[in-house]
Amino acid sequence: MGAGNFVYLWRGMVVITSRQTRTRRESLRYVNNGNKYDGIMNELENTTEAAKNTSELANNVYSDLRPIIQPVAKCIGNVLEFASCVTLPLQYWTGVAKANYAKRLEEYTKKLEDVSEQDRCEVHPEIGVPIMQALPYTTNDDIAEMFTNLLASASVSSMAGSAHPAFVEYIKQMSPDEAKIVQYLKNQNYIPYITMRANFEPPRQGFVTPVEKMVSIDRELTLVYPDNIKIDISNLVSLGVIADAGTLHLVDDNLYQNIINLKGLDGIKAKYEKIKGIKKITYTKGYYEKTEIGKLFIKACCR
User: Fold this and answer.
1) In Å, what is the CA distance from 272 to each residue of 200, 258, 275, 281?
2) Distance between CA 9 and CA 52 in Å, rounded?
3) Span 183-301: which CATH code?
4) pLDDT tens digits along 190-231
5) Where in the chain is the domain with CATH 3.30.110?
6) DSSP labels for 235-268?
7) How far is the CA of 247 from the CAs of 14, 259, 285, in angstroms?
8) pTM metric for this prediction
9) Over the stretch 218-270, which tens digit does the pLDDT of each residue have?
10) Which DSSP state fits 8?
């Protein structure tokens, strides 16, 4: 190999170039498998064309949305342009997705109508871009409401501190029913529950649990899948939005009596009392409470 040659890697293959040749096309050769430089040039041309098309699409998207976001350009102008040009997959931009995106941005804009210009701030890309990515395919209104509320919180100087970037992932991991429960918790500090225990008569030891951590909010809210209420609660616990208070219970006994009445627990209790070998049926009271991060999440995402 001559002293004037350079060797470098291209996509995992060794390429040789020489200072002596007139053009780059004439100078490069694949060492790997003997392929010609034309393969590289064709690939580069295809990549350039794709990038051009992407840029044109992004410009069109941004141009179409400009009238909607003009009032809040200070807050999300840069975030939207960055998200559109760099991170939003092309397949999102069907007619339906584009219309949905515009709808959600309009909802966001309305949330800032009563916020003065001096109280508005630029949204950090760490929180703004992921929300922009999620909005085109978020069709459920409850989930979308949480996203736009979070974006609005990040756009107000006095609220921006409560808009943690992790909250975007919280929302992504929630079902529409869980979004309703979180909204319910905006004005409620606790979710009471009851566990029913049927104790065996001696000499047999132990007990069975006919009802475990039964709540009544599935009767208070309009849920799509009310039978999944335990799964919904469990997911909110796993996300850290709420936590089980353990052995503690609320002083107001009416809260627990409401569960007994709504869920017909006295009827279940009567059935177990007739079973031979059951000595006593007892109720254990408890509750779920909002965690500190849960309070911050609700503050940022619920209005």
Assistant:
1) 11, 21, 5, 8
2) 26
3) 3.30.110
4) 999 999 999 998 888 889 999 999 999 999 999 999 999 999
5) 183-301
6) HHHHHTSEEE-TT---S-HHHHHHHHHHTTHHHH
7) 67, 18, 8
8) 0.75
9) 999 999 999 999 999 999 999 999 999 999 999 999 999 999 999 999 999 99
10) E
